[in-house]
């Protein structure tokens, strides 16, 4: 059996090298057919998906944030190391990564895109596998979680757009799963995350608030936090008046927080509100009826982070810039939540999940062609080998 697995492993790697899309398709179908006791083939799928999404991203036409970040990356060749960090002025760990990678790769933009895409997705996928293994999830839940993380268009569109926040979000979700479910306090990830994108400083502390969601024993703390989240704008306006410009930097932050910031983003999209409500309903039902008693506290804490974040967003939809920024953290919980509906691995659920995976894959391909951003032609994406991808356009 071990020798057969090794042969299958090798065949899959060869298939993936010749055609990454087909290699992923073959491996996903194999996991639906055969129940593997260890994670070897799931880890292979994680690597395959991380590489595939990285290769797709290198075909993206640079514009908006990808173009701006790409130009900043190329500036690494114009400065010495200290001068480069001073020139960028913020999030030093991200720009340290840029500077080092630029000089290691001789300024390769493909290496840059592949690196941040691969490592971000690798963190996300590993988090999903660790989470579902801890709650003793079914095989189809693991597969669906990985497929949603890989092919849900909104998540993928962020990977080469809001690059720094995407990296920070992936680090946050990996940190949260390790701390909450495995009691592994990988504190250095907080430093990396915050100094990659400072907005993640709002997220990491929630992982240490173990009382979140425990309204039975810690009602006062939870209600207090809810009051702060739903009235933060009012609190910020009072503090702004009290300080009266005595501390310019703090006053600036409080002024931004106390006023509506919509800019050119328009209204907070209705579809986002629908997604939030669906996620909240699923997690509430799961926590009420299906949680294994040994993991109940951890599951409650993990999903309570998404609940409190959801409430904060829903009460601040008039602040479209802020609510969208926080929504992009919340969306990383989606691959953990949707599969909760398929706890029982029976024929009907397995078939339904398989159809969902196929449908999601086709929708992903559709959005590559008709979405906001421009990638290589679809036929080229579907037929390329790894070597063809690496040659670029």
Describe the structure.
This protein has 393 residues and is mainly alpha-helical. The protein has a domain at 2-198 and 344-391. Helix content is 72%, strand content 0%. The protein has 22 helices and no strands. The protein has helices at residues 2-18, 20-33, 40-57, 64-74, 81-88, 92-104, 109-134, 139-151, 153-159, 163-182, 188-194, 204-208, 219-230, 232-243, 248-258, 270-289, 296-314, 320-330, 334-337, 347-370, 378-383, 386-391. Helix 7 runs parallel beside helix 10 (163-182), helix 10 packs antiparallel against helix 17 (296-314) and helix 17 (296-314) runs antiparallel to helix 18. The mean pLDDT is 89.
Question: How would you concisely characterize the structure shown here?
Answer:
This protein is an all-alpha fold and 393 residues long.
Can you lay out the helices and strands and say which pair or pack?
Layout: H1 2-18, H2 20-33, H3 40-57, H4 64-74, H5 81-88, H6 92-104, H7 109-134, H8 139-151, H9 153-159, H10 163-182, H11 188-194, H12 204-208, H13 219-230, H14 232-243, H15 248-258, H16 270-289, H17 296-314, H18 320-330, H19 334-337, H20 347-370, H21 378-383, H22 386-391
User: How many beta-strand segments?
Assistant: 0
Query: Approximately how much helix is present in the residues?
Result: over 70%
Q: Distance between termini?
A: 43 Å
Give the rounded overall mean pLDDT.
89
Largest sheet: none
In percent, how much strand structure appears in the residues? under 5%
Radius of gyration: 22 Å
Query: Class by helix and strand content?
Result: mainly alpha
Shape: globular
Distinct helical segment count: 22
Low-confidence stretches: none
> SSE order, as H and E?
HHHHHHHHHHHHHHHHHHHHHH
């Amino acid at each position: 059996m071990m020798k057969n697995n090794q042969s299958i492993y090798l065949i899959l790697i060869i298939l993936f090298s010749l055609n990454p899309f087909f290699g992923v398709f073959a491996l996903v179908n194999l996991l639906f057919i055969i129940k593997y006791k260890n994670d070897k083939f799931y880890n292979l799928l994680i690597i395959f998906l991380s590489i595939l999404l990285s290769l797709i991203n290198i075909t993206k036409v640079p514009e908006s944030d990808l173009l701006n970040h790409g130009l900043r990356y190329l500036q690494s060749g114009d400065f010495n190391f200290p001068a480069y960090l001073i020139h960028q002025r913020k999030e030093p760990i991200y720009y340290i990564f840029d500077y080092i990678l630029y000089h290691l790769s001789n300024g390769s933009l493909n290496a840059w895109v592949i690196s941040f895409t691969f490592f971000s997705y690798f963190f996300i996928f590993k988090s999903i596998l660790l989470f579902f293994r801890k709650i003793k999830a079914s095989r189809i839940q693991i597969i669906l979680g990985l497929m949603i993380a890989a092919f849900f268009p909104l998540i993928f569109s962020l990977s080469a757009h809001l690059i720094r926040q995407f990296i920070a979000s992936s680090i946050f979700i990996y940190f949260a799963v390790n701390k909450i479910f495995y009691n592994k306090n990988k504190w250095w990830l907080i430093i990396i995350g915050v100094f990659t994108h400072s907005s993640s400083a709002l997220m990491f502390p929630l992982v240490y608030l173990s009382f979140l969601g425990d309204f039975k024993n810690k009602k006062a703390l939870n209600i207090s936090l809810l009051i702060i989240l739903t009235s933060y704008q009012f609190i910020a306006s009072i503090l702004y008046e009290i300080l009266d410009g005595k501390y310019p930097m703090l006053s600036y932050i409080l002024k931004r927080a106390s006023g509506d910031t919509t800019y050119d983003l328009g209204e907070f999209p209705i579809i986002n509100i629908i997604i939030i409500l669906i996620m909240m309903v699923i997690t509430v039902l799961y926590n009420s009826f299906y949680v294994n008693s040994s993991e109940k506290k951890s599951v409650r804490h993990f999903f309570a982070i998404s609940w409190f974040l959801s409430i904060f967003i829903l009460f601040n939809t008039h602040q479209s810039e802020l609510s969208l920024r926080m929504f992009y953290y919340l969306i990383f919980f989606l691959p953990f939540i949707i599969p909760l509906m398929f706890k029982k691995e029976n024929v009907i659920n397995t078939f339904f999940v398989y159809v969902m995976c196929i449908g999601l894959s086709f929708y992903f391909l559709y959005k590559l062609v008709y979405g906001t951003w421009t990638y290589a032609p679809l036929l080229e994406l579907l037929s390329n080998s790894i070597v063809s991808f690496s040659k670029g356009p």
